[in-house]
Design brief:
Blueprint lengths: L1 H19 L5 H9 L1 E9 L2 E9 L4 E9 L6 E11 L3 E9 L2 E2 L7 E10 L2 E6 L4 E7 L7
Antiparallel strand pairs: 1-2, 1-9, 2-3, 3-4, 4-5, 5-6, 5-7, 7-8, 8-9
Length: 144
């Protein structure tokens, strides 16, 4: 009787484990939600900044920005690199900044925890600099 009960328990666990393979991977779902064009519009030290971040399906990103303020009137920047979502954080490794390749040891890296605030917004929580970065989804052709 004990062996039969043990065999049934093992069989039930095997069936349960097999069913887990059919469940969609939550990390892939969140990664797919992140793909697209995002705008971060903010003010920092009296300067208005607009950043457009494009996360491509192949793991590459492009980020363009424009600053309007007393110190950087009309300054524009364009950066690119690779991105990934690790299950908690959106991570970006910059490989080019303003058209110039970036090499170690000064390879910039950005990582922040993701919290979706709706279907077209997310907040990135930067636990290193202790700040929150708000992004909203915009049309693909949006310019900073």
């Amino acid at each position: 009787m004990r062996r039969r009960l043990l065999a049934l328990l093992v069989a039930a666990l095997a069936v349960g484990a097999a069913g887990c393979d059919d469940a969609p991977d939550q990390n892939d779902e969140i990664r797919d939600r992140l793909i697209g064009t995002w705008l971060r519009d903010y003010e920092e030290e009296g300067t208005r900044v607009r950043r457009v971040l494009v996360l491509q399906p192949d793991g590459h990103f492009h980020e363009t920005s424009r600053s309007l303020g007393p110190r950087e009137a009309g300054a524009r920047h364009a950066h690119e690199g690779q991105w990934l979502y690790d299950g908690t954080n959106l991570k970006r490794r910059y490989t080019r900044m303003d058209g110039q390749p970036v090499a170690a040891p000064q390879m910039p890296f950005a990582a922040f925890q993701i919290r979706f605030d709706g279907s077209h917004e997310f907040t990135g929580i930067d636990n290193v600099r202790h700040r929150e970065l708000h992004y909203q989804r915009v049309a693909d052709a949006t310019q900073p």
